């Protein structure tokens, strides 16, 4: 079970995530951005809209204000509500609005996050008690591969860690989304690790899953008494809610410190890795934090709690 955080910790981070403020005035026109608003880790979509007429003076907050009814608190520093859904605490658990740009958790507030055009902005209302910090998610595929993150384009590399044919499929799916995969290991690259968990876990970013959801932000882990380890889906509280079979696969994203996000295409067995590679599409990843697959059936993560 992950350790709970109190309201003081939440306020410090939420102040960064949802600071309200004014725009900077007129600016040069940019490509349209997409705005998605969901509840409960993307399970319920409230709004999805392409927002045009975006200028270089616009921010994430300004786009939200133009598309939804919002309320603020603490002198306008936090988002209190979107279309009536308010920040609350219930039975010792805390529910708030958090946002991602191109699938990456922002390290600046919404009012301070400038737009450069083409971004995918995702606001989600969720129980953050066990995982306030979820550094990266997969639900804005093919972002961040197509446009980068934090306002900069980054190279993309596929690291094949015993993934076999799954590595080829991952490269093909990235290419099909318009992503040019770089050779070698360029500095500042967004990495996609492809291979069985026994190999992938050796990477420091991937190994964060073994520290629980509070460390990795991923509602999944690999457990079991004997190899091969089995994929386990966690609920919102960070507890094991479902144990998958040995051939289940996982697509998830995480981030270590301030490094670029790392995507994981993995499973306990080669069959699980191949199944995970087949998830790389908008239809299967859209609005999900992470996705498991077993016997051709996808399971968005976290698994709904009891």
List the helices and strands and how they pair.
Blueprint: H1 7-17, E1 33-39, E2 44-51, H2 60-67, E3 70-73, E4 78-82, E5 85-86, E6 88-90, E7 93-101, E8 104-105, E9 120-127, E10 156-160, H3 165-176, E11 190-196, H4 197-200, H5 213-216, E12 220-223, E13 230-234, E14 240-243, E15 249-254, E16 262-267, H6 270-277, H7 282-285, E17 290-294, E18 297-301
Parallel strand pairs: 1-9, 10-11, 11-16
Antiparallel strand pairs: 1-2, 3-4, 4-5, 6-7, 7-8, 7-9, 12-13, 13-14, 15-16, 15-17, 17-18
Helix pairs in contact: 3-6
Entry summary:
With 306 residues, the protein is of the alpha+beta class. The protein has helices at 7-17, 60-67, 165-176, 197-200, 213-216, 270-277, 282-285; strands at residues 33-39, 44-51, 70-73, 78-82, 85-86, 88-90, 93-101, 104-105, 120-127, 156-160, 190-196, 220-223, 230-234, 240-243, 249-254, 262-267, 290-294, 297-301.
Report on the structure:
- The protein is of the alpha+beta class and 306 residues long.
- Helix content is 17%, strand content 31%.
- The strands form 4 sheets. Strands 1, 2, 6, 7, 8 and 9 form a 6-stranded mixed sheet that branches.
- The model is unreliable at 1-26 (pLDDT under 50).
Which second-level CATH architecture of the largest domain applies?
A: 2-Layer Sandwich
Low-confidence stretches: 1-26
The SS-based structural class is alpha+beta
Rg (C-alpha, Å): 19 Å
- H and E order: HEEHEEEEEEEEHEHHEEEEEHHEE
Q: What is the count of distinct domains?
A: 2
CATH superfamily of the largest domain: Chitobiase/beta-hexosaminidase domain 2-like
What is the terminal-to-terminal distance? 15 Å
CATH C-level of the largest domain = Alpha Beta
Number of helical segments with 4 or more residues: 7
Helix content percent band: 10-25%
Mean pLDDT: 89
Major sheet characteristics: 6 strands, mixed
Envelope shape: globular
Oligomer: single chain
CATH topology (level 3) name of the largest domain:
Chitobiase, domain 2
Determine the strand fraction and express it as a percent band.
Answer: 25-35%
Number of strands: 18
């Amino acid at each position: 079970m992950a350790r709970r955080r109190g309201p003081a910790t939440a306020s410090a981070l939420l102040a960064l995530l949802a600071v309200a403020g004014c725009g900077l005035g007129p600016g040069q026109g940019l490509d349209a951005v997409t705005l998605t608003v969901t509840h409960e880790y993307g399970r319920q979509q409230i709004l999805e809209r392409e927002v045009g007429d975006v200028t270089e003076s616009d921010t994430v907050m300004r786009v939200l204000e133009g598309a939804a009814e919002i309320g603020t608190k603490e002198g306008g520093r936090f988002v209190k509500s979107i279309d009536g859904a308010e920040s609350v605490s219930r039975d010792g658990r805390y529910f708030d609005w958090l946002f991602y740009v191109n699938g990456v958790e922002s390290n600046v507030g919404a009012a301070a996050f400038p737009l450069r055009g083409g971004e995918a902005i995702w606001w989600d209302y969720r129980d953050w008690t066990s995982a306030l910090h979820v550094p990266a998610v997969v639900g804005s595929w093919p972002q961040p591969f197509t446009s980068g993150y934090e306002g900069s384009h980054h190279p993309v590399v596929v690291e094949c860690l015993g993934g076999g044919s799954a590595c080829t499929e991952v490269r093909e799916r990235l290419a099909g989304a318009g992503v040019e995969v770089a050779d070698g290991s360029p500095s500042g690259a967004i990495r996609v690790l492809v291979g069985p968990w026994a190999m992938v876990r050796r990477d420091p970013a991937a190994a964060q899953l073994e520290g629980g959801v509070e460390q990795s932000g991923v509602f999944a882990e690999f457990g079991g008494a004997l190899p091969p380890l089995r994929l386990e889906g966690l609920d919102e509280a960070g507890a094991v809610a479902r144990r998958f079979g040995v051939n289940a696969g996982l697509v998830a994203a995480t981030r270590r410190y301030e490094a670029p996000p790392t995507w994981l295409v993995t499973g306990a067995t080669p069959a699980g890795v191949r199944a995970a590679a087949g998830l790389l599409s908008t239809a299967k990843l859209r609005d999900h934090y992470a996705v498991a697959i077993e016997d051709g059936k996808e399971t968005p993560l976290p698994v709904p709690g009891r």
